[in-house]
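Pipeline run #58 for the internal structure catalog. This entry was flagged by the ingest filter as a single-chain record with no existing model, so it goes straight to prediction. Upstream metadata was stripped on purpose; only the residue string is passed forward. Reviewer on rotation: M.T. Logging verbosity set to normal.
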Amino acid sequence: MNFRLIIISACFGLLLTGCNEKKETQAASQKQVERPNIILFVADDHGTDALGAYGNKVIKTPNLDKLASEGVRFNNAYCTTASCAASRSVILTGLYGHATGSYGHVHDYHHFSTYNIVKSLPVLLEKEGYTTANIGKYHVAPESVYHFEQELKADPRSTVAMAEECKDVLTSDKPFFLYFCTDDPHRANSTDPEQWDAPNSFGNKLEGYPGVETIVYDPAEVVVPDFLPDTNESREEIAQYYQSVSRIDQGFGKLMQMLQESGKADNTIVIYISDNGMAFPGAKTTLYEPGMKLPCIIKDPFSKLKNTTSDAMISWVDLTPTILDMAQVETKGYSFHGRSFKEVLDIKEPEGWDEIYASHTFHEITMYYPMRVVRDKNYKLIRNIAWRSEYPFASDLWAASTWQEVYRNKKEYFGKRKVQDYLFRPEFELFDLEKDPDEIVNLANDPNYKEVMDEMIKKIKAFQIKTRDPWLITWDHDNSLQGTGVNL
């Protein structure tokens, strides 16, 4: 009898163990199902100037406008550096480039590379069970730091074709993170040096792209931003830029259609951003507002706010911690320079989101011009560390007919800014953006703003110390982060 009881007890124990294991497996599976899918869609050189949702009534971007009507549009979203590769390193790490070695471009002879000890967003998400995939512009290094499980291939100028390549990711059994990066609307290698006034094509082709309606814009009707000269050359290039943006919009629309058809739309967070401002002098590579203030539209099916705008100041250094927060990933043990703004998607007027920092060092390796920036409410301070040097041009921006028209005709002004002031900048530029949104009136030496200047300088120094910025040494040879420089 006792023997039979023992056998029954053992069987019952095994049954309980099996049930518990099954419950744990179901619980883990349930947690995985509850985790949202995430699409991070990154355009290349797209400013807020060329989006219907941000007030442009000429450009046709119905799919991105729809995203804004279903989610939250940020009015104060900033990259930390207005240069493609350096900006993307920040997006995928939550760390400023000066702290990771991501000082500038990765390709060709530039060859900047992130320190191999850095843990990037895709690596952290894969560790948590996410399927990670990227398509289009990668532009970061090394691959071991920025590793994706899947690397999808398609013409990065053909966003509809890119979307079609993502079908298997959208139907993945596991939660997925899709990093979708277009080459549009970056300038193309199409400027004819023998014809300086020919507009760049921005990737547009006369024969168009498969599945894409070619939308052509009349240069006479485009909106010329205040920081650019209103010339035929500018208008012709802006028209090409708009056409490239409309191609992005169609690819984005195709991706959203496929997401809806996959049945995953109600469990997918969609984020649309750009790496830096439009590829025109005065925007890209500068830390003036047109270079760093960018589109950011987020549709989170789990957030309370829909069809609304937010004035919270957020930065691309906040994206990695935010996405990890959205994905319910425990970040204890990881240190980021940014912070999660997930809560902002539930609060119309959040407190404590009125300050951002920026850090630019290189674009191309021949373009050494480090800048550090703090924006605190309406005040913005730019410190031009290499202020004794002429401001360097990106090779494609120098060749732009928009710039060449001004340069060849020896004009005094480029937009609202004097050419001399654009090329030769003081060490400090302090602006009151509420009164001076075009950043023309430098208050740095105005005695009425001495207290503001002192406070802003204090903030930049504290930021550099906190983020272990090697360029801290440029303040009176402060080597506190680097030692004495003497080997003993």
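catalog note: The first helix runs from residue 2 to 34.
catalog note: The two ends are 82 Å apart (CA to CA).
status: ready for reviewer M.T.
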